[in-house]
Amino acid sequence: xxxxxxxxxDILRRHGIPVPPGEVATTPAEARAxxxxxxxxxxxxxxxxxxxxxxxxxxxxxxxxxEAEAHAKAILGMTIKGLxxxxxxxxxxxxxxxxxxxxxxxxxxxQRPVLMVSPAGGIDIEEVAAKTPEKxxxxxxxxxxxxxxxxxxxxxxxxxxxxxxxxxxxxIMQKLYGVVYAVGASLAEINxxxxxxDGTVQALDAKxxxxxNELERxxxxxxxxxxxxxxPEEVAAREAGLTFIKLDGDVGCCVNGAGLAMATMDLVKYYxxxxxxxxxIGGSSNPQKVxxxxxxxxxxxxxxxxxFNIFGGITRGDxxxxxxxxxxxEFPLKVPIVIRLTGTNEKEGIAIxxxxxxxxxxxxxxxxxxxxx
Amino acid sequence: xxxxxxxxxxxxxxxxxxxxxxxxxxxxxxYGTKVVAGVTPGKGGQRFENTIPVFNTVAQAVxxxxxxxSVIYVPAAVAASAIFExxxxxxxxxxxxxxxxxxxxxxxxxxxxxERGARLIGPNxxxxxxxxxxxxxIIPGNICKPGKIGVVSRxxxxxxxxxxxxxTHGMGQSTCVGIGGDPLIGTNFIHCLAAFAADAETxxxxxxxxxxxxxxxxxxxxxxxxxxxxxxxxxxxxxxxPGRRMGHAGAIISGSSGTAADKMAALAKAGISVMKRPAxxxxxxxxxx
Lengths: 373, 289
What we know:
A: alpha+beta, D-amino Acid Aminotransferase, Chain A, domain 1, 25% strand
């Protein structure tokens, strides 16, 4: 789960990291009121889970409160990378002297939190990594001891030659490391970390990604989820306990297990089709999940055919078959359905399907070929 | 010989009285695995299925039954703690089936397990099976056949699909290992490839990877340098969009790294035969054997 910039800034502020002021508006009038309160120039920034907001016209500088209102009017409701903007952050425009990058990710190779800092901030860190990798300094932190003071100070000097600024940056890094474990972040970055004209070091923009597995034990973080920023089908799927990701094709895919679901999508493409979605009904045996899956897939008018690929393990074939039959009683399918069913309780499942007038195939390739034909 | 488990495996089931733990404990006993103990705090003194002793702690189970391997079916909220407990009790091989452990918990679990000298398989994995000998986890025994192919995979049901292809074409398996779909796991491809390379019963290896991370690329390097046996590979997620978690917590293309195309190219470059679809596994192995 990604947090919005304003939410990430709040979290950093609560953990003692210096963050310049800024408030959220959902209407142009609110944006104007905030700008009036701050006085002077302000920046109006779209709050949306997408990179490249500036290039898309989602970040605008306003010289007056009236201009802030006009910018907010233009930005609210615009779409950036398919996502509608519902909120803007209004913040005083800062006089920036330098821009750096500080980020922490959980690194898969070292299996540790890795702190990355770069004096080349303000732009996409992947771009820096690709073009000028020597400008990125990395440190894998031993989670048993945390980020040690001397390590942080050394990285602080990688950003600033001035000792006061290096120490200020080190302090921010240690606090950011604390944030990671406090909120269950898989990513926490400050980009840019700026120095202002008077030399203070501040976190101007922040991005925090939360590990979904943390949400159950952190209800206060889970409450930050912005449902309006997600595709409605994906919200419905999550509430039904399914993993669903919408794609551009027309073959609806319903599979048990993530790896097999990906392999099924790939096979659809292999035989000349385009998958409409990724959908994993998970390992549990529950006909209701199948009903929910069918409801979500059939609500997409682009879906021309539905393909089930079930290899029963923990998932039982009879449960899936019952779910399909039950769904067709609750709502019309409208599109053809191709079912591949094998593994645990396949005989029982096939019998249930045949009684309801469906055919089941045993082979994955055959099923996919039929679905894309 | 087989990889990681065999007839000397003495298994303790953590969470044996739970819904999943009890179901799979029965399946493993039926398959012939030596299940010597179960652990559920508060149910010490009971007997599972009137035979297997249940203990309050793993340490007691190890002390009383000489269990050397543990399998974990407890809920995600307490699964990291269950791994700590197993490693702290002298268990040598820990298989964690549980899905949903926070990755930051794993940053603390992994160094602990390593320091105690234990091996962890998983989490978020289907476990492993040496057909005809022993199974630990949830891989359905009936789709496997004893034989000479070693299988290692980040996936669950996709592995069953590949095993099914192998078994129905007369290609039995020496051991099948599911290493798990999480970003931080205890046993990676290289560990398994090394074990299969050293295993006299394994003639060829199938590795099933997916998008996310660079474990497959590093495994490919290892194969090129160290593995003389034929290796056939598959990568799931060629049609996956970047930046989205495809079900598995670890299956995500971050920026431009971890794509299926990158991994398939790395495998091919290392001399691994790359499947375009699961059904290619048998013909590619036949070519190489």
